[in-house]
Amino acid sequence: MKLRHPRLIALIAWLAAGLVRSWMATVRPRFDLPDSLRHPADPRQHRFIYAFWHEALLFPTRFPVACRVLISQHADGELIAQVIQHLGFGVVRGSTTRNGSAALLKMARGGGDAHLAITPDGPRGPRRQVQPGVVYLAQLTGLPVVPVGIAYDRAWRAGSWDRFLLPRPFTTARCVIAAPILVPAGLDRGQLERFRRQLEDAMTTATAAAERWAETGVRPEASVALKASA
Amino acid sequence: MDRSALRQALGELLEDQTDVPAADLGDDQDLREGLGVDSVDMINLVLAVENRFDVRIESEELRPIRRVGQLLDLLQAKLAAKPGSAAA
Between A102, A103, A136, which is nearest B40 by CB? Predict the structure, then answer.
């Protein structure tokens, strides 16, 4: 069932934001970082584009940091956008399939006070495949892209295209962060595609490392490997 | 600059920025479906237009643009609103 009524969407978004905030507060985050810089960084000192798979959209809500999130303009995107706003994040509506250029332009010109966050396989997949917009955004802004892999020790998975992750209460989140990728200005399509593949590979590797960490409880030595491959 | 000159300039920028053959741009041509302009092409085009005509196009103004004619309308309005413009 699609939610269309604006007041109903607003009410559900407000309730959902409260539920998400309470729910995610029970989740214990553990990080594996590629260097000494903590993430999410203070955007007044270091700004990044954080890239994580659509299935892990809940995890960043755990961290109250100035951040603008790209959310789909599809009907169900409105509900997600309002939830994200209630949680204190900025929202830019658009995607690679609808109003992509306007959304990218708004993200790029949105000011220097916040990180940018993108789920590069959204809004409709294919799952875990990076669409090129994020790489182009990195080129436009000059901001490094941080590939993020997220897994939970215990979680439910939805039957949606992205197999959305819902962590069980009081579980542990494993977040593996790979070395930031800097996309130089003035690249042609072929060169941008090379960076798109590099980002996809880094996110895939980071996610696999996070999933192994969640399964075994053993912190990966992925940070070394991820740094070396960057 | 009249609309036909603007159309020609836009066509040149489109060819230059996107490799889209744009010799006979028509107002009703759909940028995405008709000309194959994707979001990356569109931003390249917007940045080139801004640079060439010394105007600023905001993301909200870009959002409803679907066809060549709408882009020309927007550009004409921007140029007319510039200080020193005959129409301003």
Answer: A136
